[in-house]
């Protein structure tokens, strides 16, 4: 008997998913537990394994198309079985049905699938002649394997494509947005223009960006934010970090110390490690620190669990693994759920200080700036010193000014006296 396969809810915030790749086509046999598709959610691209078995009778969404949670993505049944009545009855019952191509009654080859991401692409304008792609010194063209395959499938001459990747490398987005007879101004990165001519492009919003917009808008409009900024003397910590890194194969970052010091301070100030629950305030007795990681489509916040119990080297290892998985869109729900406090560090981009929007349901988030050398007063003398600014954004429903200030004072103490921090749990 024919059965409908629906879009599952793969994360707590997911409202729709995009079919980034089909592993089956109409007419194929499917077994229970077999991989049938890859689905791009608001946070990652995840494998979708079948809970049903049978022959694929119908594909309800093409690759790159979004489907609401519980929307139809396929119908399985016996080969040759009539499924039109089942599909029609589902529509009549006003259940969400994903936008779909014409019903496929006979096996048809589905276009070779590739991972679909909503990415920024270079705008294009007409040019009098094609612009050749930059080459390596050995004469070979700089092009990713995926872009090369896509160009071959679409019959695109790579010599007419300008690469927007690192060092002019041609990547997938350049092929996706290439138009025959058009060329990109190679003197600019990210977009092109002709003097005196207005131009723009409307880029589709990715699932991740939709979720970021929704959650941060809700956070800013519902949680009464206030901000506390403090300067931290980083001289001792920078010296300690340099000494430690000389004796270790893995090099610790300043952010590793920030995470460790925050975790230790949260132990002493549980109000900051809390969340607003409407009719109650949840005071967490465990410390799970979310670490904001920038990716191409937006921002992900994987969680270092029990951060107060982990060594600096373990924190360093986990954050690097999360960053790699986030870049490849391989983070799983278990990686980003359950944070009790969040850290957003833009110091590596040279930002002195900034304010961050609270990552609900957390009651606070700490924005971390760059370590900068500047003139400071020590012992009545003006001397050069290393200074870092941090800003704590607090939900005033949970954290009062005094509570937030006390947390920052304790954090500052650990950072300025790293021997106390190392005594918490060694390296």
User: Could you name the CATH class of the largest domain?
Assistant: Alpha Beta
Q: Quickly count the helices.
A: 10
List how many beta strands DSSP finds. 20
Number of domains: 3
CATH topology of the largest domain: Chloramphenicol Acetyltransferase
Beta content: 15-25%
Note poorly predicted spans: 94-139, 183-189
Radius of gyration: 26 Å
- Average pLDDT, rounded to a whole number, is 81
Coarse morphology:
globular
Physical arrangement of strands within the biggest beta sheet: 11-20-19-18-14-17
CATH superfamily of the largest domain: Chloramphenicol acetyltransferase-like domain
How helical, in percent, are the residues? 25-40%
The main β sheet shows up as: 6 strands, mixed
Query: Could you say what the CATH architecture of the largest domain is?
Result: 2-Layer Sandwich
- N to C succession of SSEs: EEEEEEEEHEHHEHEHHEEEEEEHHEEEHH
Task: Quote the distance from N terminus to C terminus.
Answer: 60 Å
Which structural category fits the helices and strands?
alpha+beta
Describe this structure as you would to a colleague.
The protein is of the alpha+beta class and 427 residues long. Helix content is 26%, strand content 24%. It has ten helices and 20 strands. α9 crosses α10. It folds into three domains: 3-92, OB fold (Dihydrolipoamide Acetyltransferase, E2P) (Beta Barrel); 119-203, E3-binding domain (Dihydrolipoamide Transferase, Irregular); 207-425, Chloramphenicol Acetyltransferase (2-Layer Sandwich). It starts with a strand and ends with a helix. A hairpin with a 4-residue loop joins β12 (274-276) and β13 (281-283).
